[in-house]
Amino acid sequence: METAVVVAAESEVIAEIDQEPALIQETKIGQLTTFEQLVQKYDRVVLTVTQVILGNREEAQEATLESFFTAYKKLSQWQEGERFSMWLMRIVITESLSRLAAQPGAREYSPDSICSKVGESLPSKVVDWVADPKELYDSVELREILSTSLRSLPLSSRMVFGLRDIVGSSLRDTAALLGLSLATVRERLLQARLHLRERLAPYFEK
Question: Is there a contact between 149 and 197 (Cβ–Cβ < 8 Å)?
Fold first, then answer.
C-alpha cells in the first residue's frame, strides 16, 4: 500500500514537470496567467532560498519578486529539455548573491568565492539531523532561531544546507547549482549539520 502511494506521488510530480514546457510556451505568446501558475508553484521555494542566502526576510521578499521578474524577461533563454526549476534557481542564486555583495562592507560573492577548503577534518558519514529542517523552517516560532543559526555559517555551507536540507534539492542538483563537486557538497553539508545541531540542541532539550 505504501509503495503504491509513493508511486502515485512520484507520478504526480512527473506530470507537473511535464506540464511546465507547455506553460512556458503559452507564457511566451502572451498568456500571463500561465506564468502565474509557475510563480505559485515555486514562490515558496524561491523565498526560502533567498532568505537562507540573505538572512533578512524583507530583502528576501524583494529578491524573490526580482527573480521572478528576471525569469519572465529572460524566458526566451530557457532551453526546452532543461528543467525549469534548475534554470529558475540559477537566476535566484545570482540575484541573491548580487544583493549580498551590495550590502555595506560585503565582499563580492561568486561560485569561486564560496568554495574555499574547510581546514578541519570531518567524518565521512553525514550525521542525522536533530529534526526535519523543513518542519523547523515552516514553524514561525522556530524559523527565526534557525535563520539566526544559519547566518553564523560560512556562505557556502549555508547555501548547501538550504538547498539540500530545507528545499530538498538532490546532492547532484545542489552541486550543479553552486558549481561545486559532490565531495565538496557533502563536506559543506556535514559541516552545516554538525554546526546547527550544536547550536539548536539547547532548544530541543528544554
Answer: no
For the chain, which domains are there? 2-102 (1.10.1740.10), 133-205 (1.10.10.10)
Q: Whole-model pTM?
A: 0.76
The one-letter amino acid at 117: K
Whole-number Å distance between alpha carbons of 92 and 77? 15
* CA–CA dist 198, 149 (Å, integer): 10
- List, for residues 142-190, the tens digit of each pLDDT value: 677 778 888 889 999 999 999 999 899 999 999 999 999 999 999 999 9
71-78: long-range contacts, CB 8 A cutoff, minimum separation 24: 72/27, 72/35, 75/24, 75/27, 75/28, 75/35, 76/28, 78/24
Question: How far is the C-alpha of 159 from the C-alpha of 169, rounded, in Å?
Answer: 11
